[in-house]
Input
Amino acid sequence: MGNRIAWLLAAFMTASGLAYAHGLEIYATGNGATIKGSITYDDHEPAEQATIQVKNAAGELLTSVVASETGEFEFQALGSFDHHLETETADGHRAEHVVPAAEVGGAAAPADEAHAHPPATAESRDDHHGPDAAELEAIVARQLQPLREELYDYKRSVAMRDIIGGIGYIVGVLGIIGYFKARRQPSSA
Amino acid sequence: MHIAEGVLSPQIILAGAVCAGAGIAWGLRRIHVDDTPRIAVLSSAFFVASLIHVPAGPVSIHLVLNGLVGIVLGPAAFPAILIGLLLQAVLFGHGGFTTLGVNTATMASGALAAWLIFRGTAPLPAFLRGALAGGLAITVAAALTAGALLASGKAFWPVAAAFGAGYVPLAVIESVITGFAVAFLSQVRPEVLPGRPRPSIVEEASLG
Output
């Protein structure tokens, strides 16, 4: 009977699609000069107005950002280095995320462009043959964004195999405990 | 209710580990080999419960079921909850590893409170006994979790707000669920509830 309840719970969750655990996560990407992201619990409930601390690699606090009611936030990147984002909620959840230096530092890119392709400045003043490098980067980043979010979602979802695996481990551990107990306490049979 | 890594002070983590360790040692000693299937089932239910979300306005809450675990298992709730929490941390990324001690201590204390209150309310109808025990288990666990956070130096009002209003809906829902579960068990399998004498192997065989 108790087995039925446990299986019913597991079946209910898989019937409603992937189940979600309850961890707090920060998701953020850098897009040149700004860093944008959201804080959510794994079931996509937003962590309303949570405070995010932005630190550098040495752990020094650089600034602090407050998320909106939908858990979203955006702020100016503070330079071309890894931004460590950390947040903690009052009920004991904590999450971190590092936005790598490669994603920020949009201010540096145009300068590099002019340096690497001096002849291009004459051409770019003419009629546009297509997007220039900075525009191209922005377009590609925009196209990749939904894919990255999907991948992120997939990584933190809980599948049936996790549930079955966990229950399997529980049965195994209790079996081992039972074995040792049986050796010491012969059952009444 | 599951406290994550890096939130608590080292002293509280250590205190939690010591309390949990004592409870687990006590629980393991009292386990009989015939109890192990029942422990496995309750531990699995606890493990899976944290995936079931309870809509509670702005706060995101999940089921705990430590009341039911406590009523049926008594002191064995400590190892059962520890195993459940460990697997939730490994497979669901829920909770932390250094905080296994504290989380076990808070939730298993709630389970123990449920066990005691259940045994002390024998004259009442089964649903009511289960509901009281289920609600108490959540209240005790939430209070201890808030206490651990406050003792680690967190600001008072945010913690009080998170564990006050946010946990009332969960306490109500768990009361109802535990009440129904106990009522069901008392009709179908009364011997798993404390206070009923277990039939001997011979009697069980003749009961079919």
Observations:
- The mean pLDDT of chain B is 89.
